[in-house]
Amino acid sequence: MAPITCKVVDANNRGRPGVYVVLECKDQLHRGIATLESLTDEDGGISLWFPTPSPGRTDDVEPQIVDSSNIPRVSLTFFPHTVPSTCPGPFLSIHTDLYLQGDECHGITLYLDPHPRLEHSPVPVASPLNKFAAAAVSTQEPQQDLSTPSPLLLPPPVSQNSRPSPMLLNGMHCHNGSRGQKRKAEDYPQSPNKRR
After folding, report:
1. Which of 9-18, 112-121, 147-156 has the lowest mean pLDDT?
2. Residue 48 CA to its chain's centroid (Å)
3. Sequence-distant (≥ 6) Cβ neighbours of residue 30 within 8 angstroms
4. 4-132 is classed in which CATH architecture?
5. Quick check: 25 and 33 in contact, CB under 8 A?
6. Model pLDDT for residues 79-125, shown as the tens digit of each residue
7. 107-142 core/surface letters (b: 16 or more CB in 10 A; e: else)
8. pTM for the full model?
């Protein structure tokens, strides 16, 4: 898979949120076969694209990753200024036609300096961490059977009827209110030692 990602950064190299971008997929004769659109996120990146609604289409539009290994010919149009009067330069939109071959990722970055420029990189410039990644993270893991004791659980408290553990050292436990009494061997039955 060779996803197409975009990023828009300002003159201070910070991501610019809310930039409208149109991606048009083209066939071998450079005719448009699909048009997708998206807005940059809070970091200025785009990794998922939304198909433009067609007339008569009433179903929900799902975001998708555009794979350039299937469709290498694309056009990108950036609209960095929502209101033309806020545009610092003569560029109302920036358009480029691309041929993205190979099975590598494609990252297209638009630098909004006084003289805008586009740059291509073979690594993604935006992360697809949204619906698809969130769905993978939120999958339920099988619940642990609670009938199996956890090694982190403490044993139940000792009652007066239970006998003391043979592992306690002499003098470290309280026996009938007096410390340091010797334990009798008959209090702790032992299994015979079997040797072959």
Report:
1. 147-156
2. 13
3. 73, 97
4. Sandwich (2.60)
5. yes
6. 987 666 566 666 778 999 999 888 888 999 999 877 889 999 988 88
7. bbbbebeeeeeeeeeeebbbebeeeeeeeeeeeeee
8. 0.60
